[in-house]
Request: fold
Amino acid sequence: MHELSLFGQIPAVRHDQVLQILAGVAAMQPQRVVERHLVYKPVRITAQRTQVGGSQAIQSQKTNVQAQAPKEVFYMQLVCDVPQGEANGSSQLAAFNTSDAVIDVDEEPKQPSTPTKADWSIQFFDVPEAGKRPVVSRMMNKTDIREGDAPQHMKGLGYDYVTEYVLEGHRLIHENVILLLHRILQYPDESAAGSGPRLSMPNPDALSPLDESGSYLLQASIRVLDGNKPEIVNTAQTELLKFKERMKGSVDLRVVDRLSLDTRFRG
Reply:
């Protein structure tokens, strides 16, 4: 899968205004997003290891990624949505073990004192393609973990935990364009994490923005299943640039330095 993106920085004082503009353009109510992102680094580059506690599908995804980039290795992330009942109050971490996870859209939010089963996914983003381009283009892959212990999946794939952050913001959809107005939050005491993921997370309001100015980032993106078909990529690119033109005067969407999105591991 390929992702085409443009980015715009939004000062904190303009957050509400821009969110209202996006809601008008997309003709929908913004959906609150709070995500946990666990960052992992590869510890075994060439050796193939027997999988521990994971599914054959995930092992296959790892093989596919390695085949496409045989000389480079990358950081990976475990990502899960924090349920609204937990994101709005002092909460425990969504449980790592997803073997008996049940999703019910009509279910009332669980009390924060009870850890909630969660759906985790392994996410990979390649380095954006080089060259002068009107949009950021990069390969990506997302593999859902439907059962088992998520961190154990990563260990089975040969990855070690590095750190964690929280993504907080709002998501909207305009035609094929995914709009994510967000900021990155960090934990006040990184040393408290120890050598593995935290078993609980505080209210997002207790976390501090990575950008001390409090600014938000707007990412406008379109995902293309087959990035090897130029006609599909060009159609998506045209739609993204059309959205950029529409937002002129409200948000300056632009291409960012590809190395600022570099996910390669150089250890």
The CA atoms of residues 30 and 239 lie 21 Å apart.
